[in-house]
Amino acid sequence: MRPDAAITPGETLLFLDEIQAAPSAITALRYFLEQMPELHLAAAGSRLELGLSDLPRAMPVGRIEYLHLGPMQFEEFLRAAGHERLVGLLGGLAPGEEVPDPIHAKLLDLLCMARVASRVRHSSANGVPLGAEANDRIFKLLFLDTGLVTTATGLSILDFEQAADLLLVNSGAICEQAVGQHLLHSAPPYQEPELFFWVREKANAAAEVDYVVGEGAHVVPVEVKAGKTGTLKSLHLFLREKRRSLGVRLSSGPPSLLRAETSLADGKNFPFRLLSLPLYLVGQVRRLIRETLAGTTT
Fold first, then answer.
1. Cα 226 to Cα 244: distance, rounded to the nearest angstrom
2. Which pLDDT belongs to residue 247?
3. Using an 8 Å Cβ cutoff, are 255 and 243 in contact?
4. How far apart, in Å, do the first and last CA atoms of the chain sit?
5. Domain-by-domain residue ranges, the chain?
6. Cα atoms in the Cβ-side hemisphere of radius 13 Å centred on 36
7. Could you tell me the sign of the dihedral formed by the alpha carbons of 235, 236, 240, 244, in that order?
8. Is the peptide bond before 56 cis (omega within 30 degrees of 0)?
9. Which residues are within 8 A (CB) of 36 and not within 5 positions of it... i.e. 6 or more apart?
10. pLDDT digits 0-9 by tens, 249-258
11. Could you report the per-residue pLDDT of 162-208, keeping only the tens digit for each?
């Protein structure tokens, strides 16, 4: 605080941060109301509930209003960014009412700008950089964290406690989210976070690879399987069509590095190496890809 700053009751907001570090200041709050009631005063602190429970003196009951603040909600972010009309639109939306496409796209952009979600864009993935062949119209959303996707899918803590296999909850969507979170921020921190996936762009031949990463001059597909097993048809299609020699599978199984061939119905198979990693090694994916490509792994 500047010692020469003027405090004008009715105009000045006096903000006391980390007030739990000075318990006597908490009990002294009553005197601001009694001796300077026009002054706007706010106090905040870390672990404030614990600080309040350790107070040696009585709290100034009836003189303090408590506000419980969580992270900024999306509507609050819109207001702060000057989009008051969008706030009104969301607040007046009726059940089943459609949102015009331009506004829908704008809201998704702002949601990503608020870092609540991130776009994972489709890339044709013929080479690096992957963003050079990204299609902004084909994307899937990656939430900020697994807590948000859990809530969005209607799951509760009871669903997890009662699940026979946690990894299979919601058909593996939670696992795919967790892996995406790690891959999105797996590049050096000075690079803008970005992540891509691949869908086959041929009619009547649907295929999708969960994620695609670029490492040096190489393009590597990454598939997420919640259980220990699962088909890898889309991964095989990608490796054959793009003539890539390495694929990554993240699952609950043990780590391995195998030489294999794509197993597709038409018999036109292609040799590749499959790097299988347990989900807990997702933070090491890029390093292990580099070492595998360099031939330094055993």
1. 24
2. 95
3. no
4. 60
5. 11-69, 72-113, 115-294
6. 15
7. positive
8. no
9. 9
10. 998 888 999 9
11. 666 655 555 578 888 889 999 998 888 888 889 999 998 776 678 89
